[in-house]
Amino acid sequence: MTLVGLVSSCFWISLLSFGGIYGAFPELQRVFVTQHGVLTTEQLIDAVVVAQMVPGPGMVACTLIGQRVGGFAGALTAFVGTYAAPVLFISGIAGLFDRYRSLVWVRRAEVALRPLVVGFMGAAAVTILRQQMSGHPWATVAVAAGASWLHARRVLSPLPLMAAAGATCWIVFATFSGH
Amino acid sequence: MTPRAWLLFNAKIGSLTFGMGAITPMYEHVLVRERKALTAREFQEILTVCQVLPGPTLVSLAMYLGKRLFGPTTGVLGVLCLCCPGAVWALLFVRFVPLERPDVRAVFWGFAVASLILLVDMVVRLLPALGATHVVGEIAAPGRHARRVAIAIGVGIAVLLHASMMSVALAGATACLVAEFAL
Predict the structure, then answer these.
(1) Minimal CA–CA distance to B180: which of A30, A7, A6, A111?
(2) B101/chain A closest Cα distance in angstroms
């Protein structure tokens, strides 16, 4: 994949994404895993997971994908492509929306477009579930059940929850692999 | 608020704050309550516009606010201040953490399962929003609610069948707007 292809893909994916990085996940998989074959689904999930663990917008996952594809130049290219999209779009239409933003139809449009966000994010959840279940299905179910319980009871906030799940899996790995 | 303070504020939240759910209230707190640069209603309207428009909401919000308050150049610099720290952290992370080692893979596998739970929770919390209207506290008619659920399922299935995002987003957005305004 060329840097031009990378910047163009990141630009369009960012511009058309609804629901942040998870909304963009299915298209990232379609373009980078299925179409160009420059990443595995596992590597894509790694990028999304790292993006959850660092501060700032989750779209930083695209920068990591760029780094995988083309090193530092790829990271820089993907960064520019990802963030140029909203910057140019908002620059172009902000004045227009500034004039009309209080109109009822803008608020109605926001409510009306929610099914898109739910659809994209739901598809991302199914894709990640499929990938995790393909490796260790029973362990996935067990860790997911524990994490769900802790999250539902508000015992742990998101970052400590991820740390606890990671630590649990590491302990299981160390126990069964003899490390 | 000066442009310099705006850039420093973006750099601070870009370096220390995780997730849109945490960052958006910080913008509101600083711009509406602390600096009184916007009214609460203005902020809510701008946030709604950024949510309606395609693209990452947080970045659109930073650009919109920066451009509106200080002009386009400061708007772009604000986005850079917001996004660069996370990118640097992420690149350092993948540079120094050996992701291919089996024990690190095990840890990441756990991270991915936890992320999945957080994502499912987000989707579940969004579901009631499909039955709402633009008026706070008002519930949509059952027919409208059912159409929205059907569109969400259709979008999800189309994505899982590897339809391109552009075609799904365009067709889905058209269906959403027709269902809201024409039916």
Answers:
(1) A111
(2) 12
Which of A173, A126, A106, A107 has its CA nearest to residue A25?
A126
Of B86, B112, B152, the CB nearest to A57: B86
Q: What is the pLDDT of residues B26-76, one digit of tens each?
A: 888 888 888 888 888 788 778 777 877 778 888 988 999 999 889 999 999
Count structural domains, chain A: 2
SS3 B164: coil
Residues A30 and A112 reside in one and the same domain: yes
Most A-contacting residue of B111, B124, B126, B127 (CB-CB within 10 A), to test interface: B111
* Residue A85 and residue A171 in one domain: no
Can you read off the two tokens belonging to residue A77?
């290219």
Q: What is the pTM of this model?
A: 0.80
Which range, A85-94, A108-117, A142-151, A156-165, has the best average confidence (pLDDT)?
A142-151
Mutation site for B-interface testing, chosen from A87, A155, A171 by largest number of B Cβ within 10 Å: A87
Are A117 and A32 in the same domain?
Answer: yes
Q: Are A171 and B105 in contact (CB under 8 A)?
A: no
Note whether B75 contacts A86, CB cutoff 8 Å.
no
Measured in whole angstroms, the distance separating CA B102 from the mean position of its chain's CA atoms is 33
Segment A87-99, tens digit of pLDDT: 998 888 777 777 7
**Tell me, what's the ipTM?**
0.79
Residue with tokens 């508000």: A154
Contact B114 A165 (CB under 8 A): yes
